Fold each of these.
Amino acid sequence: MSDSATPATPVTFPPAFLWGAATSAYQIEGAVREDGRTPSIWDTFSHTPGKTAGGDTGDVAVDHYHRYRDDVALMADLNLQAYRFSVSWSRVQPTGRGPAVQRGLDFYRRLVDELLEKGIKPAVTLYHWDLPQELEDAGGWPERDTAYRFAEYAQIVGEALGDRVETWMTLNEPWCAAFLGYASGVHAPGRTEPAAALKAAHHLNLAHGLGTKALRTVMPARNQISLSLNTSVVRPLNPGSPADLVAARKIDDLSGGIFHGPILHGAYPETLLEATSSVTDWSCIQDGDLDTIHQPIDALGLNYYTPTLVSAADPDDKGPRADGHGASEHSPWPAADDVAFHQSPGDQTEMGWSVDPTGLHELIMRYHREAPGLPLYITENGAAYDDKPDADGRVHDPERVSYLHGHLSAVRRAIADGADVRGYFLWSLMDNFEWAYGYEKRFGAVYVDYASQKRTPKSSALWYAKAAKAGELPDPEGV
């Protein structure tokens, strides 16, 4: 069936396509001081005045640590076939070193057992930005040792869960961890050191390679290992302008090539190394690193929200940087002060991000060409809107339904064009702590009343449940 059909005509997916939803530990778990857990960089950052909207923290979040059984039952009610969650490193290994705290691991054992009992496939992400604070105190990701500590942690979790969890992701969005955490400072640990951010990116790559090797030593060969990248879909403002094309290439290297270059191809792009030579000499790359990073992976996760529109900067334009990654006087793009960012056309979400499903299709087809034969998963895709219950307590979110219909249609079109996309994880299962935005931005398909912790499926959750059950996209007007 053609994806160009009218919205009322269902768009059908392959029978084996996996329908899931995703969350991350610090955004939902709460219980930050229970069962041996110690602070992560996000505990420290969120408790630092002025770093998060309203001074919000993840201390309670949506209390998933205590409510996980109800949350898994809700997932089953919504026909989810898979659930992607992250493990809190400081809950498992409080100092980032040494033996595991079994009480911490037991939570994830119980969660996995509950998922399997409900017929939901667990997908584990080992790192979603919550580095143990003690490792940051020792230098964090700009220090090479952190990558080796990650490998030890990966082995611990792999030994504990690898017999029952077949789908593994080492890192989520290492770009955010490196550049929002160490260059612009809008994410934890809040540092603004461009050279350190580039070192952090390399050590995150190294951690992925070392972690992949560690997982393979302790898990069954059937298990799939991947990672999730949020490579920008970068478009030049004027495709006919050589200067704009150079700007687009620079941002593409800094968002994508810096990770997929060594991971997929065993080398950093020469254009990246040249463009950033004023910031670093890349002496952090040691002999053997690229071979370690270039481990075979079983799939690749892609996270997509909105495209990136750039041009060569006008030296006279001193306006704010419209790259969608938070307000900071410090850029998350090292050595890219000669690049200007522009608002992409179209409707916008509450994040100010343009709604453009063609970017998701473009991203998928790019990696279909970049890594032929490698299965792809959409590991995050979703939108924040100003959701509110009506007088009857229902939460109607037609904008999100439209967003999901458009982006899932783009996924189906990419499959029709030959891309091997195996599944889709909606971001997010439920409203939660949205990092520096605190509780102001709601990405969930399930509404959470933060005072009572009551969960209410929104219209988008009900629509997505129908899609997951039928394997096709129902009319977005029919919820």
Amino acid sequence: MNDYTCTHCGTVGLAEGFIEDAGEHSRGYARWIEGAMERGLFGGAKRIGRTRRQIVAYRCPKCGHLELFVADEV
């Protein structure tokens, strides 16, 4: 267990996990992309040249609140 504290209820010791992206052509995990979202020519989000980082999630075992953080670049 870690010593992260839930910002909702104050419980110490959050469970580590991740947010899954199961969409078409996904890598299996969600990513945080730097900057405001802009739409491309076909309606999708523009991502080229932007920093991408994996999202790490911690769940409180008492109240279920999720704390999200960005981790390493992907």
Amino acid sequence: MAILVYYRKLSEDASTVRYAFGGHPEEMDRAMTLDKATCGAEPDDGGETFGFLATVRRIARTHRTSGTWPEHGMVAH
């Protein structure tokens, strides 16, 4: 199965980071909230799809390697 998901940081506070994500950079129609302490995330719409899970993993991996929460990015498998 192939996926292509784009993501963009919406906001960040002391404990969470919010991202928009979706299949097109112009139309990121879903959002998630990621817990900074656990790297666990919840999609706003409750749909834990493969694209959602892959995006959470990419964001967490980028954070682990760079030490910062990414502003935007893409997941392609």
